[in-house]
Amino acid sequence: MSDRTRAARIIAKKQVFEALIGPGFYVALAVGLLLGYFLVSAFARSVDSSGFNPRLHPLYDAIGRALEGAFGTAFVDGLFAEGPLPFAFAVSYLPVFLYLAVSSVFKFGLERNAGAVELVVYGPADGTSYLIACYLKDLFLSLLALVVILGFTLAAAGIFNDFAGPALFLTAVVAFFLSLALLAYGMFASMVTANAASSLALFLGIVLFFLIVLFGSFAIVGEYVRSLSTVVGNVVQWISPFYYGNLSLQANAAGDPLGLLAGLALLVCLSGAILAASHFIMQARGVRP
Amino acid sequence: MSAVRRAASVILFLEVLLPACAQAPVRMENLVYSALAFNGRTFSPTFAREASDAIYLIAGVDSFLTVRKTFVYFWPITGEWKTDTDTLDVPLEGTLEVTDGKGRTLPIVSTRYTYYNEKGEYELNWKVAQGAEADRIWARWSERLDAYQAAARDYRDKAARVGQERSSLLARIEVLRGQGKDVAALVDRLSGLRDPEPPRPPQDYVVPPAEIQEAFILNLPRGSYSLRLRNPDGSIMEGSHKTLVVHEKRRSSGIGYEVIPGDKWTRPVQSPTPSSVLYVDGSSDLYLRPYLEDEYNDLFYAKTIRNDDRGNPNLMTWERIQQVPGASIQLSANGAAVEVIREQPWFVEQLQGATLGYKIVPYDPQGGQKDQEPSLIAVRIPLDARSSVVRLSALDSAGRPLAGSERQIRVVSRPPAEAVLPLLALMPVVVLLTVIIFRSSKYKRS
After folding, report:
1. How many domains, in total, are found in chain B?
2. DSSP A163-213
3. Is B446 among the domain residues?
4. Do B315 and A21 lie within an 8 Å CB cutoff?
């Protein structure tokens, strides 16, 4: 094991410990689980003798109308084909992911500004090992959160007699691989900006932009907006984690396991490329902004 | 007082004005492409107005296009564009030029055609006849139709004559009986009277041949093409440029189910997605009808059916094509032994009394439902609140399993244990409190 790897591992351990003794992770996880509970419980109340009918519960009525209006009936049918669990799982994970990404980006920017990173690199660690440590910490906590949410979702499935099928597990896998790339973008945003606030703004801007491009390609809108979104999408899709995530899900829907694996592998490659870019930027600019 | 009068006159003016505005949609003269597009199930009529960029057709099947001048208007009640062909409907002659992505142009001339759906094992046996063949089929059908109509007229005349004779005999018998005379001969004649046999309409077609029409017949491979109309004088018709998107199904022969709940038999729902799960509350039995389905691009398919419709270009959707003939369903409830249930006819009986309910009973053509048609032909899946999971798949008429027909029916439960879930969701907060307490006690000790 190289010095850099060892340093990254030790720093990551410290950071995980630090995160686990603070309240943020637990609160975000509890909020996510409660959201998941509301969704699974409301689904059970949206079912009558003829099947799932979103109009029977105000929560699903609102969700169904919003999603159908934006993306069409085929999208909603596909989303709930296996039941509520994949959707509830994704919604549960969202607060945890946002907390982890936002807190990491902000904290890294703050530490760089305060000179904490500079202090660390006087020892056996360097800037890159600190960067990797932050990334590893986020990955570990993401994985932990995904496992907890999956356990909770399976418990809910048992109680409500919902089907915990391939779509649920695929959602969990794609969520983890998406996190890999999005968290890498978080590190990248921390590297290219001068302070914590601008790191955060850049990161949220990047995520929002990719999301808008993705939703634009799915949305049921006029020809002009769709054409515009397709053109923009064709340009930026190669660096968008959501594009590869969607590619994996589409391949799975088409019964193409190789396409699914290729999509996930491309997410890993994209993460590696972004981290490498962050490393070179840090090398060039130094650990102090 | 004058203010009130002024307000009243404004309201009166608006009342007069508004309905006039609402009821007169603005009509615009447009060059439209009228399409009779085969959608995998039937031919759907639609049109592409001038503002529409593209026409959508399915690859490898005949679809029909005409170019015409007509009025178009937006009908806000249904949110659709419509044509006003009563006021203006001028078909344009010429040659349709279809150019593919490699720049090769295929000229298509207008052809006489008819289309029809013959009866067979499957619901759909669509055929298209062109030119002289179309004329021959239409002529044969017209002859048969005329013959049937003549036979029907003859039947009505004969039946009327028999009816009249029967009435007259009855009247005479009554009179003679009153006079105490012998009526045996008349009674014999009356009992010898037979109603004529009604003629049977032609049985060969589900949809008989359509009246001969003329159109550009397109049957193209998948791809994007450009369209334009060349006038008989060699010039290009202005505004006739359009993109033609020819798309095809991604997957075929999937199995979907029409699901008819026992308590809402007039409101069936679909289960189109293979391997999907049907959640129910178990308050009623289900009646299932398996059907064959094909998977198309959501936007392309929607626009094939109705050119101004909306859809999702990045999603695929399963579309019902036709019922599986002679299907049966193999099911296993709660892990019990596998059972095969054949589809059978059912009859919906209205319940007597003020409840206005109904019950679905097996169809009995010899008994209570004599001379009536069955209300539905389906496979009954018995369900109740204790049926936790029912796994099923469809078999064809020969008893072979149909790929992609596997489904689960799950009866959703809302047990008291549900209250455990919010407590579980708050477990991370409990862990947090434990950490805080543990750490504060550790600091106190140190």
Report:
1. 4
2. ---HHHHHHHHHHHHHHHHHHHHHHHHHHHSSSHHHHHHHHHHHHHHHHHH
3. yes
4. no
